[in-house]
UniProtKB/TrEMBL annotation:
Bias kind Basic and acidic residues: ranges: 28-57, 75-90
Pathway recorded for this protein: Metabolic intermediate biosynthesis; chorismate biosynthesis; chorismate from D-erythrose 4-phosphate and phosphoenolpyruvate: step 4/7
InterPro entries: Aminoacid_DH-like_N_sf, NAD(P)-bd_dom_sf, Shikimate_DH-bd_N, Shikimate_DH_fam
Keywords: Amino-acid biosynthesis, Aromatic amino acid biosynthesis
GO-annotated molecular function: NADP binding; shikimate 3-dehydrogenase (NADP+) activity
Protein name: Shikimate dehydrogenase substrate binding N-terminal domain-containing protein
Amino-acid biosynthesis listed as a keyword: yes
Record Pfam families: Shikimate_dh_N
GO cellular component terms, A-Z: cytosol
Spans annotated as Disordered: 23-121
Length: 486
């Protein structure tokens, strides 16, 4: 069965992840809803000593004032039947005293009233007949009960047994820290979601997506799948369109939506390190992450970008989007010497962590330019060591990883990378503690004992302290404004 043909089945029988999601935003309103329902119930019930405005109060037979069953008013076209004086008054109301509507021609009248045509409300067993008119003949709708469900389930939504599933895909994938980061986030949010990792090569991606069941909520993508997934999506966000790459997939009913959170991860990690504006940027590498680095450079205000790549021909595809972003771009081979006297404020390396240094930078450049090395395994990379050897500023790829993962959690929870999470600062602290870094990607002295479990202690305290005094909010957003980020 194809992914498209499964969409309707997902909608009808799949995991109602939206129910768990929305509950995070509705938990604080549940008590108010319960009080409102109770108030509505009380207001709809008539007072015991007042007749209902929709139905006249029943009369009590003078022979037996204890009778609670109402005697109907006479019809304007038909006189009310008289009570036979020969019949003794008993504890039960005389059937003749109840107004009987005109029977259909084919029915024969009997001594007993037709059960279909006479509605007689039953008294509740615990109520005793009194001299006052019984309120039972007055029908009032029952209030809808407010479901007291667990915090992760939205009232009124079906509860299903399957856990929503997510995973990170790529090749190689064994080193990925995404499962630990996401599990920590969902634990803080109280969501019982499963997050794993899968080795998937580019050629196998279409078949893999087609084989996923209805329980899947979304995917995180790493190399080499970020560009390969674009033709398989039904919708992409603005950043994915600008970069031509998506690192996040959301299964949303019949839609398979793509997002790029790498750009926001870069911007937020650099902001946490104190770099909020740049003019001139070097980017090493020409793949999908390099495309995200281009967009991030534009959002940081860059005017010029030098792109250093292995394959000049393959990287020419980055020129049009760079021009569309208003950037002056120069693409150079690693083998070409850089004789420019201009020192960039920022160098972003998108290369694997185990490669040798492709570009020789002077000591002056390494001291003055901030290095963001998106690689984090092994750490430090040869390039990061070269920067650290002269006292230069290095932002670890773990900082970017945490911030882009936080935006992915936003997508999986609300469907919008710009929609903050409930208690987002606590979520970020938990993720930083698991990664063992502060908000700028600098290593912490202590890390969480066990990823995905309790996250109290020194690691969380250190992560919290790293958020203070850097001039950004809890997700590293520039003070002037979030919407331009992811």
């Amino acid at each position: 069965m194809s992914r498209t043909s499964k969409a309707s089945s997902r909608k009808a029988t799949g995991v109602d992840a939206a129910a768990q999601i929305a509950a995070l935003f509705e938990t604080q309103r549940q008590d108010e809803a319960e009080e409102t329902a109770k108030a509505a119930e009380e207001s709809e019930k008539p007072a015991p000593d007042e007749p209902s405005p929709e139905r006249p109060a029943p009369e009590v037979s003078p022979e037996n004032p204890a009778l609670a069953r109402p005697v109907a008013e006479p019809s304007p076209e038909r006189p009310a039947p008289e009570v036979s004086p020969e019949k003794p008054v008993s504890d039960e109301p005389s059937p003749e005293s109840v107004w009987v509507p005109e029977l259909l021609p084919e029915r024969q009248a009997t001594d007993e009233p037709s059960p279909e045509s006479v509605w007689v409300p039953e008294l509740l067993p615990e109520r005793q007949a009194t001299d006052e008119p019984s309120p039972e003949p007055v029908w009032a709708p029952e209030p809808v009960p407010v479901q007291t469900a667990p915090p992760a389930i939205l009232p009124g939504k079906p509860v299903v047994s399957q856990r929503p599933r997510l995973a990170v895909l790529g090749s190689p994938i064994g080193h990925s820290k995404s499962p630990d980061l996401h599990r920590a986030a969902y634990e803080v949010l109280g969501l019982d979601w499963e997050y794993g990792r899968e080795e998937v090569v580019e050629a196998a991606l279409p078949a893999y997506l087609d084989g996923l069941g209805e329980e899947w909520r979304g995917l995180s993508l790493t190399m080499p799948l970020k560009k390969a997934v674009i033709p398989l999506l039904t919708d992409i966000d603005r950043v994915a369109a600008e970069t031509g790459a998506a690192n996040t997939v959301l299964f949303d009913g019949e839609e398979v939506r793509g997002f790029n959170t790498d750009v926001g991860g870069i911007v937020r990690a650099l902001s946490a390190a104190g770099l909020e504006r740049v003019r001139y940027v070097h980017i090493l590498g020409g793949g999908a992450t390099a495309a995200s680095a281009l967009v991030a450079a534009a959002e940081l205000g860059a005017e010029r970008v030098d792109l250093h790549v292995r394959d000049l021909e393959k990287s020419l595809s980055l020129e049009p989007p760079a021009h569309g972003l208003g950037l002056r771009i120069r693409i150079r081979s690693f083998l070409q010497a850089d004789r420019s006297l201009d020192i960039p404020e920022l160098v972003i390396s998108t290369l694997p962590g185990d490669v040798s240094i492709p570009v020789l930078y002077t000591d002056s450049t390494r001291r003055r330019a901030v290095l963001l090395d998106v690689a984090y395994e092994p750490w430090p990379t040869p390039l990061a060591r070269a920067w650290q050897s002269v006292g230069g500023t290095v932002v670890s790829g773990l900082g970017m990883l945490v911030h882009q993962a936080l935006l992915q959690v936003r997508v999986f929870v609300s469907g919008d990378p710009l929609e903050p999470l409930p208690d987002e600062e606590a979520v970020l602290r938990a993720m930083l503690a698991v990664a063992g870094v502060d908000a700028a990607g600098a290593p912490l002295e202590a890390a969480a004992d066990t990823p995905g479990t309790s996250l109290d202690g020194a690691a969380v305290d250190a992560a919290a302290a790293s958020l203070d005094g850097v001039g950004v909010d809890a997700v590293g957003t520039l003070p002037e404004e979030a919407a331009a980020g992811a």
